[in-house]
Amino acid sequence: MSPRAPVFESVVGSTMRPGDRGTAKLVRDWGDRVVAVRYRYSNSPPTRFTTIELVVASAPWTPTASRSVLVEVRSWEGDLREKIRAAGGRFVLKAMRWRIRYDKAIALGLEDRVSFLIPHASPTPKSSTDAGTRKSLPVQILARNKGKSL
Question: pTM for the complete prediction?
């Protein structure tokens, strides 16, 4: 077993953004590259890990033609809504925007209204080991996150 193994078997107790209480030293050391600071908890042996998420590189990005994007359409733009629907677009209630393929949005002249869909991690545990670890977290962590998925 490698020295890093316990961190992979741990669960996230809290996530903080730069500027939140407890992040000042890490932000001072790493600067604007800090995206998040996390406390992770492991049971074997009982350990708290402090991890940081850093930006290591950035570059311009253009989606492929078949990539889905979100397009903002105002309530009074009924004709535009119908064009998007005819092009295969669907309304996304959570985002309050229309989802459509990037190439079709460009063809409709909507490049200035496009916002990109960014994939995100699933909030559900990736393995049964992760799900079982939640019960053995410190009580204050469970109380603070009651009703939230760890």
Answer: 0.45
